[in-house]
């Protein structure tokens, strides 16, 4: 079964750090670009960061540049999002998704991140 499962969300104070993880099963992970997206309450889902299939190219939303780092381990079929200096506006549900050269792949169910004092 082709699946992505996220974990690592939680409650963190402003200025704090959190690392999200996403594990893939059932598909050729190293052939897919991986992405982290988020959806804040009352807002549309937005792309936060993406990483190429080989892990040699990354992109970030302007709002998280310099604070977030996306990485992947193809041997473990994992993708990570290291989040530093978190702000209340980073609050939302974070989703892991995938895309091959030709089509969208699996998408996870999301993990909640809440930044609040």
In short:
The chain is mainly β and 117 residues long.
Report on the architecture of this protein.
The structure is a single chain. It is built from no helices and 11 strands. The chain has strands at residues 3-7, 10-12, 18-25, 33-39, 46-51, 58-60, 68-73, 78-83, 92-99, 104-107, 111-115. By secondary structure, the chain is mainly β. Strands 2, 4, 5, 6, 9, 10 and 11 form a 7-stranded mixed beta sheet that branches.
From the N-terminal CA to the C-terminal CA, the straight-line distance is 39 Å
Strand content: over 45%
Mean of residue pLDDT?
97
Helix and strand pattern: EEEEEEEEEEE
The number of strands is 11
Instruction: Specify the biggest β-sheet.
Output: 7 strands, mixed
Principal-axis shape: globular
Oligomer: single chain
The computed structural class is: mainly beta
Give the topology.
Blueprint: E1 3-7, E2 10-12, E3 18-25, E4 33-39, E5 46-51, E6 58-60, E7 68-73, E8 78-83, E9 92-99, E10 104-107, E11 111-115
Parallel strand pairs: 2-11
Antiparallel strand pairs: 1-3, 3-8, 4-5, 4-9, 5-6, 7-8, 9-10, 9-11
């Amino acid at each position: 079964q082709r699946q992505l499962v996220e974990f690592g969300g939680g409650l963190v104070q402003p200025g704090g750090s959190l690392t999200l993880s996403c594990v893939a099963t059932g598909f050729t992970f190293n052939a897919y670009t991986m992405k982290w997206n988020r959806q804040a309450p009352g807002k549309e889902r937005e792309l936060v960061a993406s990483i190429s299939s080989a892990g040699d190219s990354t992109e970030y939303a302007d709002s998280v540049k310099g604070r977030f780092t996306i990485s992947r381990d193809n041997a473990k079929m994992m993708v990570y999002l290291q989040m530093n200096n978190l702000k209340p506006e980073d609050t939302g549900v974070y989703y892991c998704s995938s895309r091959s050269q030709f089509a969208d792949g699996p998408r996870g169910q999301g993990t909640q991140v809440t930044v609040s004092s």
